[in-house]
Amino acid sequence: MKKPSFHREDGFFYINKEELMDQVQIFDTTLRDGEQSPGASMDVEQKFEIALQLEHLGVDVIEAGFPVSSPEQFRACRLIADRVKDSTIAALTRSHEKDIDAAADALVNAAHPRIHTFISTSPVHMQYKLKKTPEEVLEMTRFAVRYARNKAAEVEFSPEDATRTDIDFLCQVLDVAIQEGATILNIPDTVGYTIPGEYANLITTIRERVPNIDKAIISVHCHDDLGLAVANTVSALNAGARQAEVTINGIGERAGNASLEEVVMALKVRKDAFNLDTRIDTKQLYPTSRMVSTMIGFPIPRNKAVVGENAFAHESGIHQHGMLSHRETYEIMTPESVGREATRIVLGRHSGMHGFRKRLAELGMVIEESEIKKAYEAFLKIADRKKEVYDEDLYTILSEQFGSTADSLVLEYVNFQSGNTSIPTATVRIRDHEEVYEEAATGDGPVDAVFRAIERALGSDATLVEYNVQAVTPGKQAIGETSVVIEVDGKRTTGRGSSTDILEASAKAYVNALSRHRLLKEVTHP
Ligand code: KIV
Ligand code: ZN
């Protein structure tokens, strides 16, 4: 989609709004509000990498940080403004001169700089946080917007806690901001208090009552305290707002902000209802989501819309049957459209014979119709015990049915030595039927040393793709369960191991994965 063009008036830039009639500007605040999530701080280099990805994703505005708040914040904003040229770069300020000076300095080399200045306008914030009267807040707004406009071509103004602000006062503040040259007026639902119809009405009222509102773009910024951030955002867009402030994976203060991927996909999938477009390359949504999640160490909930592990996974027999007959029975968008791999038919205890047979065929396991029923019964027994039945479980079922033996490799012992002054070293002994292999290796850490010793002992060249540890019993003597995913010749196999010793559990899981890989080869190439 085409980027909006600008025109100059009185020396300042204005977006050509008529081009925005059916286009929503995506303002990403992952690096500012998102970073305010407890535990989500990022260093300068991480922020820069995310900014490059956001530019690639097609984000219109990247809020790079709050420069006055710390030297690190300043450096990150500066670096992003220096290097990211496709997106507008915004920097946040309170209504103070020193904040605005810092933002202007950080944005000095930006191709499209924007100063985003805010001040609280709700009674509770003015009285208890600012300790200012409404008149003083009005004057501070006038000063901040005017001062910022002399420092940057584009100014956005936010009356913080707008949704709990007196409507007459809100309109007055917005009027002042426009008079002083703000061209983007953000209406934050700072505490996630509003509800969709009410927020839409607020936008309509602002459009009707604020003089010269057509000179500005109305922006929306929603927090998720009641789980309504995305609903509120799209509802306000429907009422005429044309900028959505969002974050990747919905990270942000407290319960977070509206999630970028959900807002963008809601507009795309329900184009019939909104008739609004964005410039986002939706195929970059999943990679961006993964990147942010891994960088800040916040796992994506399995059931998260659009990017969660289960978002395109179908387990129940009825759903699987429907999906196999016609995808649109249970999917409103394709996983490919958000940059994910194809739909997963997950086998579990709700799966029917249809899904089971289809998965076997996909794995190249063609078995007689007469044998299928028996295999399906064996599958149901496993499915009753496990949340999800993996491909390797299917191989095990079939190999047992057709006489192959599982777990041909047995870990006989694992020893390790590690400490803060020695190089981690591990020795393993593995039995493969009559043969016994013993090897030692060093590694970057004890787990790495154990895995390398196993690899060396078996002459394998598997790559470790995933490694997870969790305690399955409470207390000091907790049993740790380790699961690994390895890749050999492009095929992935999982393995599991448990022990009160994490390193032993890890070694068992790795040997188990190699054993299963071997089995998989036997079943597909008998
Ligand atoms: O939630 C909020 O009000 C904010 C403002 C600074 C825009 O993040
Ligand atoms: Zn916010």
Question: SSE layout and pairings?
Answer:
Elements: E1 6-9, E2 12-15, E3 25-28, H1 44-57, E4 61-65, H2 71-83, E5 88-93, H3 97-106, E6 113-120, H4 123-130, H5 134-149, E7 155-160, H6 167-179, E8 184-189, H7 196-209, E9 217-222, H8 229-238, E10 243-246, H9 260-269, H10 271-274, H11 285-296, E11 313-314, H12 317-325, E12 344-345, H13 353-362, H14 369-385, H15 391-401, E13 409-417, E14 425-432, E15 435-442, H16 446-458, E16 463-471, E17 480-488, E18 491-499, H17 502-524
Parallel strand pairs: 3-4, 3-10, 4-5, 5-6, 6-7, 7-8, 8-9, 9-10, 11-12
Antiparallel strand pairs: 1-2, 13-14, 14-15, 16-17, 17-18
Helix pairs in contact: 1-2, 1-11, 2-3, 5-6, 7-8, 8-9, 14-15, 15-17, 16-17
The chain binds 3-methyl-2-oxobutanoic acid and zinc ion.
Rough outline? elongated
**Which kinds of small molecule does this entry bind, naming each only once?**
3-methyl-2-oxobutanoic acid, zinc ion
When the domains are counted, the total is 3
Query: Can you identify the CATH class of the largest domain?
Result: Alpha Beta
Low-pLDDT parts are: none
Our estimate of the beta-strand percent is 15-25%
Can you give a write-up of this model?
The protein is an alpha/beta fold and 526 residues long. It folds into 3 domains: 275 residues, Aldolase class I (TIM Barrel, Alpha-Beta Barrel); 90 residues, no CATH class; 116 residues, 2-Layer Sandwich (Double Stranded RNA Binding Domain), CATH 3.30.160.270. The chain has 17 helices and 18 strands. Helix 7 runs parallel beside helix 8, helix 8 crosses helix 9 and helix 15 packs across helix 17. The longest helix has 23 residues. It is elongated and about 85 Å long. It starts with 5 loop residues before the first strand and ends with a helix. 45% of the residues are buried. The chain binds 3-methyl-2-oxobutanoic acid (KIV) and zinc ion (ZN).
